[in-house]
Amino acid sequence: MAIQDTDATADIIPDFSKGLLPAIVQDDATGEVLMLAFMNEQAFRKTLETGEAHYWSRSRNELWHKGETSGHVQKVRALRLDCDNDAILLLVSQIGGAACHTGRQSCFYRECRDGKVHFCSPKIFDPEQVYGKRKF
Amino acid sequence: MAIQDTDATADIIPDFSKGLLPAIVQDDATGEVLMLAFMNEQAFRKTLETGEAHYWSRSRNELWHKGETSGHVQKVRALRLDCDNDAILLLVSQIGGAACHTGRQSCFYRECRDGKVHFCSPKIFDPEQVYGKRKF
């Protein structure tokens, strides 16, 4: 069955008039969802300009170049936008192999499945060795 | 190298004191990110109780049982929580094959890769046939 594509335009223009927008970060190679952060227009532009993920840190209230301290940056391979233009999906290569400040591959490392909670994402590094005693 | 798991507890208790929390919805079988919505505690509880995804609709300001009208519900196979307890990941089976109100498999159907924008998610149904002339 052929279905027309008339309702869609191929622009990628997030609507930042809605405020900070959630950005889902997914591993481009494996499909694992690594983290969720927020972007404003400045973070979005810096991401496009540099090819490395930038977010808006709500706790520090400043632009956040993910991995700037540790070197564990996220190389953006592709970028998707949702139907309402208010959620962003980044497909990345995570340098260092872990997106989470706990050293785990994914921030979503706890899973409930079949009524049981288990850890679903491996620990890649010891955060103290990467970040020292820095508090998050 | 063995790395201790001492920083993690295996509870799944979202922190709704932070307000509405973003919920990423991922296809449990394929890993495709289907949509992003928001949950409050009521939506989270209804999701656990029923095994079908419930969200909080910010536009209608009401509990939203996804697929209630169309029958295209999301059967929750697993649920993950992030390190800060403020982002949720649902792994679902999407009944009807499409999560987006446009009839596409994923709401994230526009992708920019290698400098080119293209449609990355197929259209599964004609929304007029499923929803009629309903406005979103």
Order of helices and strands of chain A: EEHEEEEEEH
Terminal-residue CA separation of chain A: 52 Å
State the helical fraction of chain A. 10-25%
The radius of gyration over CA of chain A amounts to 17 Å
User: Going across the major beta sheet of chain A, what is the strand order?
Assistant: 2-1-6-5
Strand content of chain A: 25-35%
The CATH architecture term of chain A is Roll
CATH homolog superfamily of chain A: Phosphoribosyl-AMP cyclohydrolase
Structural class of chain A: mainly beta
Shape of chain A: globular
Question: Which secondary structure elements does this structure contain, and how are they paired or packed?
Answer:
The structure is a homodimer of 136-residue chains.
Chain A: E1 21-27, E2 33-39, H1 41-50, E3 54-57, E4 62-65, E5 74-81, E6 88-94, E7 110-113, E8 116-119, H2 127-131
Parallel strand pairs in A: 1-6
Antiparallel strand pairs in A: 1-2, 3-4, 5-6, 7-8
